[in-house]
Amino acid sequence: MGNGTPVLKLGKHRPRYPLIQGGMGVGISGFRLAGTVAKLGAVGTIASVGLGHSMPHYLSGGTNYFEANESAIRDFVRKAKEIAGPEGIVAVNCMVALTDYDTEVRAAVEGGANVIISGAGLPLRLPEYTKDFPDVALVPIVSSAKAASLIARRWEKYYGRSPDGFVVETPATAGGHLGAATMEQVYDQALSLEEALPNMLRFVTDEMQSDIPVIAAGGIWDRADMERMFELGAKGIQIGTRFGCTVEGDAHDRFKQAYIDAKEEDVVLINSPAGLPGRAIKNPFVARCLEGEKMDGSCFANCLTHCRYRKTGETFCIARALIDAFNGKWESGLFFCGSNVVKAHKMETVSEIISELFGAEK
């Protein structure tokens, strides 16, 4: 690494490289991807959402969805850490918007996760769920200093602790659920990394009087993107979409091929059942969604605290659509992606990505 490469410290954890592999659900960043990334010196991240769908005892009808999730998270963390080795740093991304958010966080830390990354809402009670595991680093995902301030004040007042870092993600280029309340806000210049990142750095330094790291996320693909974020003051970067199209990625090969085939006109914004904008590849399923077609089926798992599909029958069952994408079902899956998916021209290995970014040995 060059002299301009910062050191990323997340609480007591210090990865060799200032890189977090982004959490991608359902199942896209599972234990194989996260474990390999962690083994090679970055932070490997498991997305906790919906992991129970793949558990044999759930598939056979032996337990309910939430029990299966809890079991799967523990199992995935254990397997990731086996791959990563004793020095590897394994994170779990837990979405605040999930019905079983608290259970998923507890399962992750009890299973041995080193870091909890949390967004899709404000993780105001996260320290409560991890209080028996003080060595676990807690890293909220935010899109603005205003959101970071709300979290920091709440944590200090009720739990006497501060976040161990903030991931600042711009909705303009990020994948999946976006940190914007409306479609119009997705491209708000105030939420661009060029504006949000310096604002976050000022907030951390001046108001928190802290040196916790600010990590840039959204649309970061290559070394040039990374170095631009470091020049803006980020202590680390988070990359999701590029890792979704790796040999070690946990999704079906058809999912990865969708990334390779994607053109600029295929990347679109949709309204998620969670009430948030989302970015995905336009396939037959998404085309039907954009046309306002009513989707058949029923609520799969009561997975979201707020779900338009469950309440009104509008939009679609997002759990079912994301699981179909994980399984490579092009016609019926929801293939979340970042805007830079158009740069995915081939399958890569994790080591090739890290080598390109940091000049590491393959």
What topology emerges from the helices and strands here?
Elements: E1 19-21, H1 31-39, E2 43-47, H2 56-59, H3 65-84, E3 89-95, H4 101-111, E4 115-119, H5 126-129, E5 137-142, H6 145-159, E6 166-169, E7 176-177, H7 193-207, E8 214-217, H8 223-232, E9 236-239, H9 241-244, H10 253-261, E10 267-271, E11 277-281, H11 284-290, H12 308-312, H13 318-326, H14 350-358
Parallel strand pairs: 1-9, 2-3, 3-4, 4-5, 5-6, 6-8, 8-9
Antiparallel strand pairs: 7-11, 10-11
What does this protein look like?
This protein has helices at residues 31-39, 56-59, 65-84, 101-111, 126-129, 145-159, 193-207, 223-232, 241-244, 253-261, 284-290, 308-312, 318-326, 350-358, and strands spanning 19-21, 43-47, 89-95, 115-119, 137-142, 166-169, 176-177, 214-217, 236-239, 267-271, 277-281. Helix 1 packs parallel to helix 3 (65-84) and helix 3 runs parallel beside helix 4. The longest helix has 20 residues, at 65-84. It is 36% helix and 14% strand. By secondary structure, it is an alpha/beta fold. It has 2 domains: 19-253 and 345-358, Alpha-Beta Barrel (TIM Barrel), CATH 3.20.20; 261-340, no CATH class. It is globular, with a radius of gyration of 19 Å. The model has no long low-confidence stretch (mean pLDDT 91). It is built from 14 helices and 11 strands.
